[in-house]
Amino acid sequence: MTQAPERTAAPAAPTPGELMSPRERLRLVLVLGFLIALGPLTIDMYLPSLPTITDELHTTAATVQLTLTGTLAGLALGQLLIGPVSDAAGRRGPLIAGVAVHIAASILCVIAPNLAVLGALRVLQGLGAAAATVVAMAVVRDLFTGLAAAKLLSRLMLVMGAAPILAPTLGGITLNWTSWRGVFVVLALFGIAILTVAALWLPETLPVARRRNGGVAGTVRDYGRLFTDRTYLGLILVAGLAMIALIAYVSGSSFVFQQQFGLSEQQFGFVFGAGAIGLITATQLNVRLLRRWTPSQILVSSLAGGAAAAGVLLLFAATGFGGLAGILVPLWAVLAAVGLALPNAPALALSRHGEAAGTAAALLGAVQFGLGALAAPLVGVLGTGAIGMALVIAGGMLAANAVLLLVVRPWRLPAEAIDPGLATAH
Q1: pLDDT digits (tens, 9 = 90+) for 224-247
Q2: Is 403 among the domain residues?
Q3: DSSP output for 170-232
Q4: Residue 99 falls inside a structural domain
Q5: Rounded distance, CA 45 to CA 170, Å?
Q6: In the chain, is it the N or the C terminus that has fewer CB atoms within a 10 Å radius of its CB?
Q7: What is the CATH number of the domain that holds 257?
Q8: How far apart are the C-alpha atoms of 294 and 397, rounded to whole Å?
Q9: Interval 175-212: pLDDT, tens
Q10: Does 184 reside within a domain?
Q11: Is there a domain that residue 114 lies in?
């Protein structure tokens, strides 16, 4: 990774986020952290109970993993719908409505009589959680750009890393005193907490003058404009393919570690959480790396390293070399690489379309969770062992590298085109 060139661009006007006081910025980060956490908690908290749900509802591992796919599909579809709405109506209204849907779906999951109903309700949960995800990303772009946005996203990735640590562990603890249905009670309570925090402390970040009121035709035009931007499309595909690797781990790990390696639900919760430490460490290291290198340089290097680690993971899974440690060590290296890639790819993509931040964030999130939704059933089809999980992880990382090199081609872009906010980030 070569050191970034000297930046001599003329100073630009400060962004709204740069005019905030330290106290206001801290409160914003905390609120956005709550919003960002809703999606990962919804996805991950019931993971320790997947084998139990499989037995209790008399189904198969591949079928029960479709409930995870449903959640991811809901997250993808919900963002496509909510993003344009938030560009037209502001951020707060769609957020509050979406979280309310999530709360209602969580309560109904508690009494779901069969897997079909549970799967449908998980789609509704995803639709509701999508509001929190897309609004959080759009608020970042409303207030910050370029390097400043990448740094804030790195801080939010700390939450996205902490949520997987806490979620399966909380799920395992919950299963000590109740059934898998109690997990959805906890998710409903968390949704109520998020709704309260957002209603009280999240300001409206999209002024009326900047709202887009073109209706359905305007939404179609906005999406059409995004689809003509090759670099933006490449970057969101890179983020989505990196998400495939992450979701393959999320969907397959409970079966790999509990069934193949014999860990208990609680042990799995701690192992799963430990894996997220690499993700968290990488996201916070990213803030320091951004002082010396551009987001595109970090993205190139992290994806290359992640592909190499995924290759080692696949080799060890196929040969059985190293046992449990032989799976965990390269797997944690892949998670660290994803932790470096995910803050930078979205920041670079969103910096290109500040005029329609909600729509741009929606398409980004839809691609991420849409591709992630494909990963869960694919892992199930390939089997519940380490080889199937490793195949999907390696495939996602290799594809992300291919798209970055063939579509984005970051070395062919001037620094200003890659990251328009570099000049204003210091």
Answers
A1: 888 889 999 999 999 999 989 988
A2: yes
A3: HHHHHHHHS-THHHHHHHHHHHHHHHHHHHHH----S-GGG----HHHHHHHHHHHHHT-HHH
A4: yes
A5: 7
A6: C
A7: 1.20.1250.20
A8: 21
A9: 888 888 999 999 999 999 999 999 888 888 888 888 87
A10: yes
A11: yes
